[in-house]
């Protein structure tokens, strides 16, 4: 046998079998065929999880928005209650201020009224002295000046004389002590004589006028 013939079987023995004829070749091909599906499975799961994540994010934002709205509503309610309380306190203070002002004014007027009531009889006496015949002109002038100063003081204190002479009798302002026959030109019920002047303080009677009325 020649050397070439011997080398041929040796060469054939050294060559490996084709891949499709090797043991386990079918399993390798199957694994390679199955691997693309295995790789696609996580991607599909991720695609399915993505909407869930989005839904969870929106739900979280909705919960946060609802919580924020609840806090805002609570803050608005608290502010409304505080405003209402503030308005109530302001109204109570305004009523208190007005009440104390009226009370202080009333006390002042009561004090002035009492003082005027004590001074009026003195003025009555001075008026009688001013109207009486007197030879001493300086004395009479002094009395008249005193009456003028008293009138100015009364004006400052808002004390006014009640004008009644020649007017119809008013029991709210006058006290009638006598009735006389009406003279010619006088109407019945008209004041014809004033015995004592009447005075008011801010419209309140300090002393009623004492008068004579025509029948």
TrEMBL record:
Pfam families: GrpE. SUPFAM superfamilies: Coiled-coil domain of nucleotide exchange factor GrpE, Head domain of nucleotide exchange factor GrpE. Signal peptide: none annotated. One of its GO terms (molecular function) is protein homodimerization activity. Its main location: cytoplasm. GO terms for cellular component: cytoplasm. GO terms for biological process: protein folding. Residues 1-10, 45-61 have a biased composition (Basic and acidic residues). It is found in: Cytoplasm. Keywords: Chaperone, Cytoplasm, Stress response. The keyword Cell division does not apply. Residues 11-41 have a biased composition (Low complexity). Residues 1-61 are annotated as: Disordered. The keyword 4Fe-4S does not apply. Participates actively in the response to hyperosmotic and heat shock by preventing the aggregation of stress-denatured proteins, in association with DnaK and GrpE. It is the nucleotide exchange factor for DnaK and may function as a thermosensor. Unfolded proteins bind initially to DnaJ; upon interaction with the DnaJ-bound protein, DnaK hydrolyzes its bound ATP, resulting in the formation of a stable complex. GrpE releases ADP from DnaK; ATP binding to DnaK triggers the release of the substrate protein, thus completing the reaction cycle. Homodimer. PANTHER family: GRPE PROTEIN (PTHR21237), GRPE PROTEIN HOMOLOG, MITOCHONDRIAL (PTHR21237:SF23). Belongs to the GrpE family. This is Protein GrpE.
């Amino acid at each position: 046998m020649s050397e070439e013939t011997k080398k041929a079987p040796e060469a054939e023995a050294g060559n490996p079998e084709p891949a499709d004829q090797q043991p386990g070749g079918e399993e390798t091909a199957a694994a390679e065929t199955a691997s693309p599906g295995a790789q696609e499975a996580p991607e599909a799961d991720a695609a399915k999880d993505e909407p869930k994540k989005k839904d969870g994010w929106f739900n979280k934002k909705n919960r946060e928005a609802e919580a924020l709205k609840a806090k805002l509503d609570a803050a608005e309610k608290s502010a409304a209650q505080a405003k209402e309380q503030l308005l109530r306190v302001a109204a109570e203070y305004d009523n208190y201020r007005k009440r104390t002002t009226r009370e202080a004014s009333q006390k002042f007027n009561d004090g002035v009224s009492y003082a005027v009531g004590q001074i009026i009889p003195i003025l009555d006496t001075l008026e009688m002295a001013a109207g009486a015949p007197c030879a001493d002109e300086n004395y009479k002038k002094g009395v008249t000046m005193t009456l003028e100063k008293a009138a100015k003081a009364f004006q400052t204190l808002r004390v006014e004389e009640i004008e009644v002479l020649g007017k119809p009798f008013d029991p709210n302002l006058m006290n009638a002590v006598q009735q006389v026959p009406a003279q010619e030109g006088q109407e019945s019920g008209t004041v014809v004589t004033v015995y004592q002047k009447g005075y008011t303080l801010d419209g309140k009677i300090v002393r009623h006028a004492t008068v004579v009325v025509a029948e």
